Model the fold of this input.
Amino acid sequence: MSNNMYHLFFIDDDKDFLRSMNMAVSKQIHENGNGMDIETHFMSDPHEGLSFARELTDESEKIAVIISDQQMPELTGIEFMEKVSEFVPISMFPNR
Done:
């Protein structure tokens, strides 16, 4: 992957919601991406999302945005964000 790539994460156990977001976000990026390299990731399993986020950060990729559902069966959105903040570089969390 490119080191100039920005990744957007959407984590939600509602697969219909993820499909809707995929259509809406992909259209917006295509129309308004301003030439930026943006890759979107839509995941219904928060553990899969954590593993993939760790893989990206291990490869020095930039995670620009993480949007997480709060009520999921395996992890809450807060728990997900707490776990991801353990390995996502602090510079990506400027208020910490």
User: Anything to note?
Assistant: The chain has a mean pLDDT of 84. Residues 15-32 form the longest helix (18 residues). The longest strand covers residues 5-11. Helices lie at 15-32, 46-58, 77-84.
